[in-house]
Every structure is written in structure tokens, then in C-alpha cells.
Amino acid sequence: MQISKRLRAVAGMVTSGSILADIGTDHAYIPIYLVSNKTIPRALAMDVNRGPLEKAQRHIQEAGLEALIETRLSDGLAALHCKEAESIIIAGMGGPLMVRILKEGRDRLTGCRELILQPQSDIRAVRAHIEEAGWQIVNEEMICEEQKFYPMMRAVPREQAGVLAAPLTEKELRFGPFLIKERHPVLKEFLLSEGRTGRQIQEALAGQQGEGAVRRRQEVEEELRMIGEILELYKEPENICL
Questions:
Q1: How confident is residue 2, by pLDDT bands cut at 50, 70 and 90?
Q2: CATH match of 5-163 with 3.30.160.60
Q3: Domain ranges (residues) in the chain
Q4: What tens digit of pLDDT does each residue of 145-162 get?
């Protein structure tokens, strides 16, 4: 089946052969895609709303995968049993909701070997929670589709990460440790876009003396400083004559 560039990128982070739980599955496109391509043996497609879940069930039936993909009505991870899924996807929702789901369902993550997360907003809060909750980001991706930027990450329990990473810096929390380290081309596009937006905000705030305006101006200045530092990494090193 054909799925969007964003969903393909999320699906590409799932470890082959793992049992998947797709939280907030909507139309179950990712489970169907992965099972159809024999990337994974079976999956759970879970959603808090009956309407999307009924559509997911129809799509699963049309694909002839009822025996391999189970739909389940669930608020976040509530209907997931411990050790039932090795890979968990939470994608296409706001960062605060994603953090709430992870916090409330923490005991349901027993036996999970990886989290694949694609927040639509406040990704800093998601990265911070992942670190606080004992997980470690081991891979990141970012794509641009229809002029929107979609960062995503794969995290594993810290004890399974092999090499323990240092605590994330503020820059890494905001923009992604692996995206920065790998000088990801889409991150550069995103940074340039954010830089333009930041400078527009600066112009709009120029001359305003209220406490809120001063605080916002400081926040924008700090973000622009970090963006500038990361963009410096993309510059080709100068040739050195030995």
C-alpha cells in the first residue's frame, strides 16, 4: 500500500521482526504497511476513538490481515498488556499529549524494546521526558512534507543502549542530538525557516518595553543564537595546507 512520506519514515524506524503496538493508529496505515511488507509478524492498532478504529478495522479487512493485526479501543497505553509489544509507535499528536500517554502508561512499557515517537509540537518536552524516564534516543529522522517539518526519534531503555550518552544539552533538547551531529539536511532547512521567523518576531517586538515583550525578546535571541551555532556546523571546513 502507498502511505505518506511522514508515515513511511516513522515505519522505517521500527526494528524488523518486532511485535508492534501503534498508539493513536487512526487508519492503521503503519501496521498494515509493515505487516504487508513482512517487516513485522503482527501488530496491535490502538486508538481512543471508535470512529477511526472502525475505519482501521475496515482497512485491515481489505488487506486480508485480520489474523495479524488486532484493533483495540484504548486511551493511550491503557489497553496494552505488559510485555505484549516490543515496539511502540506514538505519532501524529502533540508533544504534551504524548508525554501524558507515556507517563500514565509507564507500567505498560515493560518488555518494550523501543519507542518510535513523532510529536507534532513541543518536541523539546518529549525529548526531556524520554531522558527523565530512563530512555535514550539512539536515532532520529526529519522529513519535510507539504511544507511542514516532521522530526521523529527512536529511543531504547538506557540499560539496552550500549554506550550511555551524556545528558542532552539545551540545543540537543530543542533540535535533536543526532540531527545536529549528522548535520541532517532537513534540519538545516528547518533552522533557516525558524531563523527567518525569529527575526520577524524580533522586528515586531522592537521598541516594546513590557515585561512580556522583554522576556519574549530574550527567548528569541537565545534561540537565534543556538540556531546560528548549529548552522555553523554545516559550513565546509577550510582547506588546510600541511
A1: confident
A2: no
A3: 5-163, 186-232
A4: 999 999 999 999 998 887
